[in-house]
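Appendix B: complex inputs.
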Amino acid sequence: MEDLIKDQYGLLYSSELLLSIILLVFIIGVVANLSDGLNEKMLSEEELSSLENIAIQSSDYLLSNPGNPENWEEDERLNNGIVSKKIIPGLAIKNKNFENGEFYSESSSDEMIMSNAISYNKLIKIKNNYDSLVNENLFNGSVKSSMAIYPLNSEIRPIKMGTDFDYEDDNVNDNDIVTVNRTVKCDFYSRFAVYNFNDLELFGENYDDGLCNHDSNPNLTNHENDERSLWLCKNFRVYKESLEEYEYYLISDESVKNSGTYWILESLNRTHENKEMLNQEVIELNPFLLEDLENSSDEIYSIHFNVPKNRISDFKTVLVAIPNNMTDVLISNDELNYDYFRVQDVNFILKIGYK
Ligand SMILES: [Zn+2]
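Resulting structure:
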């Protein structure tokens, strides 16, 4: 009985506490609403149009300037959140031409800047240092902002950074935020591509892949196209040192499993005829490459694909070399995926509001 009384008191006590908490929350709510009502103000037309100007001008700036100083995104300190006041970020890609899903260096025109093409690397550096790079260095602390890219290809995740305007429930009115939306190209990880092997798609039967060591060696079967299939053969050199810094992968679109493609990887000192079905999306090449590089500083390798003519559109493969320190991140983000090694169209969205 004594226990029961104690329990009753305990119950009473806790319900009293609950009641007072509810009351407190209620009072805070009323006060907050009151002050909200006092502070709330719609932006004047003038304020809104100057906000629009900032949004449009800063979008133009970000999309058409590579940023300052040159190669600002390579500043190692950015990886530790240390941001120099001198950096004004830009997203544009410099000195490149676009062809077959990749940007190519164009050395003859040093000043050329790709219009409407953004660097994924720069975008990630901005995401990781948004407040300092954008809110402070770019906007001088005068506004709050967010940036996002929405890839048109649904296999690639959107990336959002900055103020989450959708989540903010304080006195920000939707009408007081200005949004700029531009469709641009983003390079993602295409800069790590050594070769893109979907060329067949573009050139079809007329595709001339140049020399194949199997055509000139009488001991090896000729890789000439026949009625039913095409050969695509490329040579590439690998230095022993680069294996310490890079992971080589052959990365294919999922559709390659249906394409009936065979492949051969060999070094010119270790040629062979054993073609294998290409039915894995990700193939690690370093173990194979290392076998030839144990006693040599560099080696020329040769990769051959045999693709059925009626399955050419399912053959999408890229040979990539990814810096060692990035492979774990790519794997854990599920980005070791064909689509991430191609240039992709994205919607770039910048939102700005007064603080
Ligand atoms: Zn060949």
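Residues 252 and 317 are 4 Å apart (CA to CA).
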